[in-house]
Write a structure and sequence with these properties.
Shape: elongated
Strand order of the largest sheet: 1-3-2
Structural class: mainly alpha
Number of domains: 1
CATH architecture: Orthogonal Bundle
Helix content: 55-70%
Strand content: 5-15%
Number of strands: 3
CATH class: Mainly Alpha
Radius of gyration: 19 Å
Length: 152
């Protein structure tokens, strides 16, 4: 039995398909907005995602390459190259961890902080605008223990 089998045995209704399609459309519109917005600012979408992963890392404003790779779901060597390019652009810096010299912290520069703040404000406004299509309805056949509102 797969996780999909556990997700509910009742067939999906027309309303369910419409809700899923609307949600997928909203996600794609948001991603396209993000890609176009960061490119207009001279960045790649991956550079924005890197900066956001660093600033949004739980409990601190830096991360290791391995942690960033996990957050972005990329291979370690791909993140090393991404960090190299972002560092060359003055967006991020590397610093030795004061507690463990084997670790290298990746953190935003002041320039990276300003760029991220500006771009993230635009992203937040777009999310507010798209909220109606990004909100899933309560599913009538939600699995036991699932929240009533999947949008959280």
């Amino acid at each position: 039995m797969t996780a999909a089998d556990d997700a509910g045995s009742a067939p999906l209704s027309k309303h369910d398909f419409e809700a899923l399609a609307r949600f997928r459309f909203g996600i794609r519109r948001y991603l396209r907005f993000s890609e176009e917005t960061v490119r207009r600012d001279g960045l790649t979408p991956q550079q924005y995602q890197l900066m956001l992963a660093l600033k949004g890392f739980p409990g601190r404003d830096w991360a290791t390459v391995r942690e960033v790779a996990d957050r972005l779901q990329l291979r370690h060597h791909s993140v090393v190259e991404l960090v190299n390019r972002a560092q060359a652009e003055g967006l991020v810096a590397r610093a030795p961890d004061p507690d463990d010299r084997r670790l290298v912290r990746v953190l935003l520069t002041d320039h990276g902080e300003r760029v991220l703040a500006r771009l993230s404000a635009l992203h937040r406004a777009e999310l507010h605008r798209l909220q109606p299509v990004l909100t899933l309805p309560a599913w009538s056949d939600a699995p036991e223990g699932a929240p009533d509102d999947a949008a959280g």
